[in-house]
Write a structure and sequence with these properties.
194 residues, Serine Threonine Protein Phosphatase 5, Tetratricopeptide repeat, mainly alpha, HdeD family acid-resistance protein, 0% strand, disordered N terminus
C-alpha cells in the first residue's frame, strides 16, 4: 500500500493534479492560439473578434466546467466558477449580434477581472499545498485582473488597440497556463499518481 498520497504535500489534491494538468495545458494552448489570431489579423472586424472571443470563452469554460464536475476533487468549485464565468462571457458576446466595440471591450474587461479573481483565489488555495505551481495560477490571475482594469480605464483606445492588447494578453496568459500545466503535472508525479 502506497502512502505517497498522504505523505506528499499534494495529499488530497494529487488525484486532481493528475486529472487537470492536461486541461490547464489545453486552455493555455487555446489562449495562445487566440492571441496569435488577434495579432496576426489586427484589421479583424468587431464581428470576427466577437466570434473568436466567444468561441474561445465557451470552449475554455466547457472544458473547465466539465472537468471540475467530473472530478469533484477538493477545490473543484473554483474551477467550476471559472468555467461558468468563461461560458457566460462567451454567450453574452455571441448572442448579442449588434455588439459595439465599446460594449465588447466592457464584456472582455469584466470577463478578465472575474476570471482573474477566481484564478487568484484558486491559486491561493493551492498555495496551502506548498507547491510552486500556485504562483503561476496567481500570476495569470493578476495579469487577467490588470488587463481588465486597463480596458476599463482606457476604453477609448479603439478597436485596433483592443485587439493588439487582447492578443498580447492572451499569449501571456496562455504561456503562464502552459507553465502551470507542467508544474501541476510535476506535482502529480511527485505524489506518485502519474
Amino acid at each position: 500500500m502506497s502512502t505517497s498520497s498522504t505523505s506528499s504535500p499534494a495529499g488530497p489534491f494529487a488525484a486532481l493534479f493528475k486529472q487537470i494538468w492536461w486541461v490547464v495545458l489545453l486552455r493555455g494552448i487555446l489562449a495562445v492560439l487566440f492571441g496569435v489570431i488577434a495579432l496576426a489579423w489586427p484589421g479583424i472586424t468587431v464581428w470576427a473578434l466577437v466570434v473568436v472571443f466567444a468561441a474561445y470563452s465557451i470552449v475554455d469554460g466547457i472544458v473547465l466546467a466539465v472537468q471540475s464536475v467530473r472530478d469533484k476533487a477538493e477545490g473543484w468549485g473554483w474551477w467550476l466558477a471559472m468555467g461558468v464565468v468563461s461560458v457566460i462571457a462567451g454567450l453574452v458576446a455571441l448572442f448579442w449580434p449588434g455588439i459595439t466595440a465599446l460594449v465588447l471591450l466592457y464584456v472582455i474587461a469584466f470577463y478578465a477581472i472575474l476570471f482573474g479573481i477566481t484564478g487568484i483565489v484558486g491559486g491561493i488555495r493551492f498555495r496551502k499545498l506548498h507547491e510552486s505551481g500556485w504562483v503561476w495560477s496567481v500570476l495569470a490571475g493578476v495579469i487577467a485582473v490588470l488587463f481588465g482594469i486597463v480596458l476599463l480605464i482606457f476604453p477609448g483606445e479603439g478597436i485596433l488597440g483592443l485587439i493588439v492588447l487582447l492578443g498580447i494578453y492572451a499569449i501571456l496568459f496562455g504561456v503562464l497556463l502552459i507553465v502551470l500545466a507542467f508544474q501541476v503535472r510535476s506535482a502529480a508525479k511527485k505524489a506518485g499518481v502519474i
